[in-house]
Design brief:
7 copies of one chain form a homoheptamer.
Chain A lengths: L6 H7 L4 E6 L4 E9 L5 E11 L5 E11 L4 E6 L7
């Protein structure tokens, strides 16, 4: 059986790697994790933000570095990307 | 009468087993529980995510490993699956 | 006059008994209470979940054992059931 | 001038008496207060629940004993009832 | 310049006086303040509740004494009334 | 470079001055700040409240003194007014 | 690999620099960061506020200095601006 893995341990393992972040609502991002705090607020580099406008068109926005409020994060997928699905 | 079972005790018994997670809203997931914290944030492996789109079509998405924010979890069903109902 | 009864005392008296749980929104459940914590998260056995779909049809789902997030519980009715009303 | 009366003091005076509870949203209840905690979760006996369905019809449901989550309580009216207005 | 006045100091000065309470949403009340706690839950006497129904008709409801949950209070106006505007 | 200025320091500097308060939603107010607490609940004198009704008409309401719940404040603009824009 | 960077460390590095702030909902701002607290409430100078009205028209509002409630901040982009995308 795989060893037990706590949530913050998993995030810590993702430092320096690509992380797919699925927000509550339709917004998704992929970026390289630089740091995080206990509330899962995250510093991310080389970020691609995927937005779906009201009329369904998909937009990609490139951002060098962001601080993301962890409050609206629904799910983290280490190494994943919406482009995989 | 069955012995008393506390919520976190039940989740602890599920480590390494399949767990059906019903979120507030329409989203459901099944995965193998690797770990969790006091807020029921959960690390899950071999995850199938069940989504119902606006027009009612059901989508399944396979994800190797995720960290799920416990904030939006409505219910956990040990060993269950939406495919059972 | 009936003796004073604190909320957590009442729930404690329900351990091992049938409990009707009315959620915020339309969802209701009946199950046997196995355990609970200070946030009224509850472990329930032999659960019947009553759902009303968007078109008004009533669905019953049977679940062996669940952990219910207490956050969305509106009301508990010891020994009651939606089938009584 | 009437003496100062703190919120929890007022509720305490209502133990054993009829209490009209107005929830956020359209739901109202009347019951005999058996106990409460600091979050104004309340144990109530001989409860009448007043609901207004989507099409405006008023329903009354009788419940022997309930535990009401204080989180959604908007207002308490000692000795009052929606039947008075 | 008028002296500094802290929020709880202002409410304390209102004990025994008429207070206009504007809730989030359309509900407003006027009553005599009997007591309050740190969450601005308030005990009010001789209360007039002003409600606007869905079709715009204004209703006044008289209540002898209430406990109002401070959670939904938007604004307090010492000595004021919606009848002034 | 301008010196560092902490949020509560900025509010403290506004005591006795006019303050434009923009709420979540469409409501805005201007008033003279008399006092505040750590939750940015505020005592304001000589208040003008700007409301936009459902049909777009703008209403101004004058209030001598209010206590404003800081919970719904989106933004404070020292010395500003909606009349400036 | 880039060094670890904690969220509050990143914000601290932005003192005196331009910061693009994306709020939950459609509102965005750019301003010079003067100070912040643990809740990411922020004092900003030379602020441009970008709003999209219901009918889609974009409005820019210039404000000398504001205190922004951190509660509704979704994302911070150091040195960025909506004019870049």
């Amino acid at each position: 059986m795989a060893a037990r893995l706590l949530p913050l341990e998993l995030i810590d393992k993702c430092i320096g790697s690509r992380l797919w972040i699925i927000m509550k609502g339709d917004k998704e991002l992929v970026g390289t994790l630089r740091g995080f705090d206990d509330y899962v607020n995250m510093v991310l580099d080389d970020v691609t933000e995927y937005e779906v406008d009201a009329d369904g068109t998909k937009r990609r926005i490139q951002l060098d570095q962001i601080l993301l409020n962890g409050n609206n994060v629904a799910m983290l997928v280490p190494g994943g990307s919406p482009e995989d699905t």
